[in-house]
Design brief:
376 residues, alpha/beta, Rossmann fold, 2 domains, six-stranded parallel beta sheet, four-stranded parallel beta sheet, binds beta-D-glucopyranose
């Protein structure tokens, strides 16, 4: 294991904790050049490079740690770098990993459409590239994709809202505010599409009414309602703006949040504006199963999360990496969905799961994803 990895992971955990506590996270510790590498991994060791977008979101800390644990257990050396949500930083980290002699690159990209020139260098060196969670776009030099079923995640959020409000039978109308994820993340598009395909008919029929001008833009271009870098603080101020401008004489009944970090900001805005748990509190969706959001769900301030058990993804990716290195057939379960604009990637999709309040104990604590203490 490269030293920089443990520094990044430990510091990352601290930054993440600070972020969860509501403090401003300090910048990600920069991954200094790995002195033990430089040009090639030590003989007899196979180096796997892993790049993740940011330590400021709990899930990526789980993903990174899970991957390193699994790969090291299988005898691999690893380099793990976090990009602080800065694309240039991530590109530099990938280039360092290429120069350090990585045989496989596992990349959860920040801006997945800008990695082409870097991955061309990787390809020249015979490195295999696996896109992790987020699809890498517009380049032939990416080989595999492993993710949760992203369209399904959005669809589950849309269906939850539809059922919770009983949109087919209730009279309504319901005031609805849609949010979307970072415009540079291909996943954000799929989450939005999945949810919108379920909810659009009700917007068209007038049962769901979008009051805000920003929210209305969802109908023409999801990126117009996207929250850059998935920042909770940006979602909070956007929600506050919508509440201040359009809800002085009415209540919002439902908010589509594509993930937990946005839901955190939205819930904070709702609280600031005097919304308290109870019949008038809006339906609010999420995704990831982050600890602060599980607490919100337990407090009836968030209605659900789509749980992505990152341990399953890490285990599958570790298996695929091992198959790649050994020259074996790489296990995939989808070969026709994920087109990156140049080619369709052989992919492995994991099924996500909706979690509501009364399932947290059994599913998340029961499976060891979180502990009782995490929820206090
Ligand atoms: C991931 C989500 C995550 C979001 C923000 C997406 O690409 O799939 O799990 O919440 O990025 O980091």
């Amino acid at each position: 294991m490269a030293i920089r990895k443990s520094v990044a992971v430990l510091a990352g955990a601290a930054v993440a904790l600070a972020a969860f506590a509501g403090c401003t996270p300090s910048p990600t510790p920069s991954a200094s050049p790995n002195t033990e590498s430089g040009s090639a991994a030590p003989a007899g060791d196979t180096l796997i490079g892993i790049t993740m977008p940011t330590v400021s979101l709990e899930r990526w800390n789980n993903d990174g740690k899970g991957l390193v644990d699994q790969l090291e257990k299988a005898g691999y050396k690893t380099m793990l770098d976090y990009g602080d949500n800065k694309n240039e930083q991530q590109i530099q980290q990938i280039e360092n990993q290429i120069n350090a002699g990585a045989k496989v690159l596992v990349i959860a990209s920040i801006d997945g459409s800008t990695l082409g020139p870097t991955l061309a260098k990787a390809k020249e060196k015979g490195i295999t590239v696996l896109a992790y969670d987020r699809l890498i776009m517009k380049t032939p030099d990416v080989d595999y994709y492993a993710t949760f079923d992203n369209y399904l995640i959005g669809k589950l959020q849309g269906e939850f809202i539809k059922e919770k409000l009983d949109l087919d039978n209730a009279a309504g109308p319901f005031n609805f505010e849609p949010f979307a994820g970072s415009p540079d993340d291909n996943n954000a598009s799929l989450f939005f599409q999945g949810a919108w395909d379920v909810l659009k008919p009700y917007v068209d029929s007038g049962k769901l009414v979008i009051q805000s001008e920003t929210g209305k833009k969802a109908a023409s271009n999801w990126q117009d309602i996207g929250i850059l870098e998935w920042k909770a603080t940006t979602a909070q101020s956007e929600m506050e703006t919508r509440l201040n401008s359009y809800y002085t004489d009415k209540k919002v009944n439902v908010v589509l949040s594509p993930n937990d970090s946005l839901a955190l900001g939205i819930a904070q805005a709702l609280e600031t504006k005097g919304y308290t748990p109870g019949p008038e509190y809006p339906v609010l969706s999420g995704q990831d199963g982050d600890k602060p959001n599980l607490k919100l769900i337990l407090a009836d301030k968030q209605s659900m999360t789509v749980w992505k058990d990152t341990r399953l993804l890490a285990a599958q990716v570790a298996k695929m990496v091992d198959q790649i290195v050994k020259g074996e057939t790489v296990e995939t379960n989808n070969t026709d969905t994920y087109n990156n604009g140049v080619k369709v990637l052989p992919s492995y999709l994991i099924t996500p799961e909706v979690i509501v309040k009364d399932q947290i104990q059994e599913k998340l604590v029961g499976s060891g994803f979180v502990t009782e203490d995490d929820l206090k």
